Structure formats: structure tokens, C-alpha cells
Amino acid sequence: DRGIGGIEAAVKAAGELSYEDGVKKERELFMELMSGTQSAAMRHYFFAERAANKIDDVPKDTPLIPIKKVGVIGAGTMGGGIAMNFLSAGIPVTIIEMAQDALDRGTGVMRKNYENTAKKGRMTGEQVEQAMGLLTPTLSYDDLADCDLVIEAVFENMDVKEAVFSELDRVCKPGAILATNTSTLDVDRIASFTQRPEDVMGMHFFSPANVMKLLENVRGEKTSDEVVATVMDLSRRIGKVGVLVGVCHGFVGNRMLHRRQAEAVQLVNEGASPQQVDKVLFDLGFPMGPFAMSDLAGMDVGYRIREELRKEDPANGPARNWTDELVEAGRLGQKTQAGVFDYKDGDRTPVPSTAVDGIIEQYRSNNGITPREISDQEILERCMYVMVNEGAKILEEGIAARPLDVDVIWIYGYGFPVYRGGVLFWADQVGVKAIFEKVNEIYQQTGSDVWKPAKLLSDLAEQGKGFY
Questions:
Q1: pLDDT digits over 216-243, tens only?
Q2: Is 461:436 a contact under the CB 8 Å cutoff?
Q3: Which string of DSSP letters, residue by residue, matches 328-358?
Q4: Which of these, 65, 104, 190, 443, has the minimum number of CB atoms within 10 Å of its CB?
Q5: Is 204 a catalytic residue?
């Protein structure tokens, strides 16, 4: 790493050279680092994060809806984490569950999280009680009648969403914002379950919701400017970095992620090991690779999404693969100490699994696949270039307004290294023309629509330009 290398060289110079020569050497090293790509990437990101909150097509004088009380549907991991953001900002929350034991369990976890924060000295016992004192647990939707904003955080299933939003439409006061925390589902369809689609919006929090700073705010076809402006302003009030996106399956972050995850699985199908794929992306700067990330999130999360897609469109839904077999065998990730990798009790370190190796070998055999050696460079190109191409399609479609929106989402939501500036900033450093040529080459080989070059990518390559 150039930054660490520069610091080491400066320390060495301080010990070996005279003061005058040491200071001169330190200045040379500083100027070299300042003109390097890491410095450029971090300066780019500094401004991108601040620009993400500015929405060009929503007038600056758009009136904001006062948010004095918030409702949260669901007291599970997501619902509890979402509620904590508002409680910590001094905004009262009414949280609803279907059963008393689930409600008690959820509020108990919230209190424990606050108490753990207090033990680390980040808040006082008095602040814990203040936050929890703003919480009203309930089993009745009728208690949401005076909320200015209600956020749904229930099971990722359209039938469940329909039942919830029909009920919210009945009980919530006129002008209340009705938000969904869905990570993939159609916000416009969810809005259609109400008589007030202009008040419906997506607020996609990232897990753990009380920690992760990204908030992917999804504007529906009929969402009003007042609702958009209020939600973007509220994001800042609760300490989040809000990014506005449009409606499509997976929005920006998960749409790109699903492409990468599918490519990671395909690379293993062809002969790579899960640990090889993970190491390549870890070495690029991600905090963990695709498979360790699946284990952390829970293998059943992606499985449920794939099952939902297969149910909706049996002909074009995602094909079954060896990861489905892991879930059906009870290997759900860290929570069962077994997913793509094995885990020891109390230890999050992924350990390669001989059982999974056997399942992968059997999958290859059943599908007539002869494994081959796959280079680290091929893994890097296929996992990253498929995301760049999808990012270009997202910009073309207007799902994201600017390249910086994509970059902010990937840094704050998925741990893309800030010193690389974001997926599309990184693409400019690699060279858009080189990426286009490789994407087109893979498209010609596979004929897969996933690899069909985005027109924007093609145009930039032809013009010798980048995303920025």
C-alpha cells in the first residue's frame, strides 16, 4: 500500500538523515502521495458524499413534512435497528409486532444494544433510559394513527407487504409517509396497495440498521417531491448518508450485488474455490469476499429472494445452484456455524469446508462441468466488470442520477474501499475502454444478457472518456 509505504519511508528518513534532509524527504513523499490515485479517490469521495444529498429535480424550497413521531412495523433485527436510529435522534417511536413474545424479545435486544454501547463509554446510562423512554411497543396497528412516518420492516414477500400496506392505509392519518424497507421488491407495486401512492417511498436501511450509515431512498413513480425532500432531510437528521434511487429489482446496490454474487457462483461452478474468489476481492480492499458476506448476512436471505423470483417467473427466474443445496441442508451461514464456510463457536473466521467441496463437486458432476484452473485476474475482472457494466445500465435507465450516487452506495453499503473512490471511480482508473473490451469479449463468448455491454459503457469507450 503506497500510503503505508510512504509513512514507513518517512520514519526511516527521520532516523537516518539529518533534520534538514529528513524534512525534505518527507515533503517529497507527501507530494508523491498527494498526487497519487488513493488521494484522488478519497478527495473524490469527500465531495461525492456531500453531493449525494442534493437532488437536482426537487426544488430547494420544497416544504418538508414535520416528522415528530415514527412507527416501525416489525421488531426483528431490521425493525429494531431502524427504530434505534430515531430514538437516538430524540424522535419517539411506536413499534409493532404480531405477538407479545416477539415484541418483548425485540425491545429487549434494543435495550441490550444500547447498554453495550454504554459499556463502551459511547453513551451514558441516562441516555440509554432517555432513548428507551421514547419507545412505545404495541400489538395494535391503531396505535400508529398519529405517526408522521411509518416504516415497514417485515418478511420480504409481496403478499405480506400487501397485507401490511392495506392496513397502514386504513389506520394512518392523511399526509403520513408510508415507507418500505424492502431491499429488492417493486416499490410502485407496494404503493398500489394504498389509496395514497404519492405518500409511499422506499427507505432501504442496511444491516445492522443502527450502525450502517447508508440509506437507499427509493422514489416511486408517484412519490411527491415533499415526501422525497422530507426523507432525504430526515436521513441526515438520523445520521445516515441518504442516496436517492429509482424503482427496479434490487435498486442500485443489490442489483449490482446480485450480478457479482451470480458471477462468483459461476466462477466456482467452472473450477475456482470459494476461498480463492473471496481472497481476490478481499485483496482489492473489500472487508470480506462474496461468500463470507453471504454467510454473515445469512444464506437464506439470498435463497428467499431467488425463490420469490422463481415463483414469479418460473421460465426466467434464477437457475438452481449449489448454494441452494447448502440452504436446504441447513447451512445458513454464521448463525448455524456452517454456510459456504465452517465457523467455530464464538469465532467469525471462515474455514474452508470439505462438506461444501463435496457438494460443489457433485453439482459439477451432475451438470457435466469439467473444472478448470481459473486465474485471480479472471476472478477480479468477472466479479468487478459485471458490476461496472450493471452500474452503467443503472445510469442509462435513470435509476441512479449520477455516477457518484453509485459510488456512495457501494462504499457505505457494501464496504468498497474508500481509497479506491467507489466502483465507477475505480473503473475510470482501470480504463473504461479496457473494461468495455473485456465485457464485450465475454458477451460474445456467452451470449448472456448480463454481459451485453451497456450503451453508456460502449459510448464512453468509443469517446475515450470515463464516468467522471
A1: 999 999 999 999 999 999 999 999 999 9
A2: yes
A3: HTT--BGGGTBSSSB--TT----B--HHHHH
A4: 104
A5: yes
